[in-house]
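Batch job 17 of 40 flagged for manual review because the log was empty.
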Amino acid sequence: MLVEGGQCALHASVGKLSQFLLLPRPRGSAELHRSTVKRVPTRVKPDRYGVPSEPTEEQAPPTTASVHAVLEPVRLDPSPASLPPEICQFLEYARVEKGLAGNSITSYRRDLVKFAEYLRRQGRSYERTSREEIRGFLATLYRRGLSARSVARHLVSLRNFFRFLLKEGRTRSDPTSDVDAPKLDQTLPKYLTAEEVDVLLAQPDTSALLGLRDKAMLELLYATGMRVSELVRLRWADFDSNLGIVRCLGKGNKERLIPVGKSALRAVENYVQHSRPEFARNEATPFLFLNRRGGPLSRVGFWKLLASYGRHAHIATPLTPHLVRHSFATHLLERGADLRSIQLMLGHSNISTTQIYTHVLKERLKQVYQTHHPRA
């Protein structure tokens, strides 16, 4: 039988759905090389709280993409004062009128800075940009070692940018309209088994202050399927313990209500009562999950913690917050939840994004058949 911390949150979520869900400064090559080198966790340093802390890091060898980036550095300063006015106006439009999240704005900005530098080298302006320049830019991305998925994201950024320019009368045509997107291999999301989830949730030492915090974050991540950026921005005021729900602010500042199981609520309450006051040096801080210094725990900080607990749990698959999110959705679907309810809890704007989990379930059924049927 599975322990309570693993699966009761899923059953509680399914039962409450109908009730709640309807409601670069210029950089030289040496500096750029340092910024493109990956940093990987190597070991977990025990701390005085008795739980694994953020692992120390060391530099990994540069990848092919980072070497190309060093050879072809982007010299355009991406600070607001030096950005082309067209890009500044587009980013403001995306932020204010489209309501895009900060991470999306950062991605758009990074992609468009690369494209602006490419056009500068070609001696072209936005008004004179043709399909050939768009395809040439994408080709340089491939030569730098970027994957088809990353190139496709750059193309999406350019499409939205030129549609904005066309709408504003800054250009006569959209040069991206006739450019085909790279073909992407459909990869099914990986997920944890129910047994692996139980082992993971049992890792934090709840007799330690940080262990209480980590336990609450792991329980809540699996119980709700939140994105990591949503998790670290939570406030205690977002919870309604009596109703068993949490208010979540997702992409584009879209708010949604997510049911929370008793196990996750209990873990959060224990953290708030016994651990958080020890970290909250500034009593006015609104964020729920704090680091040792009393500030909000960052996405990267939680990412490292999660990876550390995954290694301690001997989980073979490299653990990421999105892997836990995939596990949440897959386990709900396996237990009979409908796609529409899962879509609402995950905060997907389009149900086609959620439908990928039906393919996961089909593949799992095939594996069960192949393993257990005598004539498979």
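Reviewer: the log was empty due to a logging misconfiguration, but the result itself is present. The first strand starts at residue 39 and ends at 43. Unflagging and moving on to job 18.
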